[in-house]
Fold:
Amino acid sequence: MLKKILLVAFTLLITLFASVGFAASKYDPAIAAAKAEIPAGVELYGIEEKEGKIELNFYDGNTLLSYEVEVIAATNKVKEIEIKGSNLPGSIRITKTEAEIRSIVLGEYPDAQNIRIEVETDGNLRYYEAEFTTPKYKAELKINPHTGAICKRELEYF
Structure:
């Protein structure tokens, strides 16, 4: 009797490991597409599939940035990336000029074109919102007007 229980338990364990391995490989093409668009060394910590999209969540412990990458399930093509930092985008003080913000944008995205910069308000905090295009995507950044830190990035791929 004990041998049968052990055999059944062993079979279930092997089946479990095989199914986990299969499930992980299902997302490998989407993970590879996402990793091609974000910095090396980030850690994958979440996968969710819904409505024909795969949402992959990554975190970079060195920069404290989180990456939410949306991949189209049918094509494994990156549709959108949202990058969030640990800094608040807003400040009550604006010490950076629009020209300095433009330089920050071009420093991070040298191929940025059609850059539009506006001051936005969220409660009593203000921040710069920069929108631009590159050959690969349309981007929107939220930039702290006092520190110049890019606090949030949304990249919508063409």
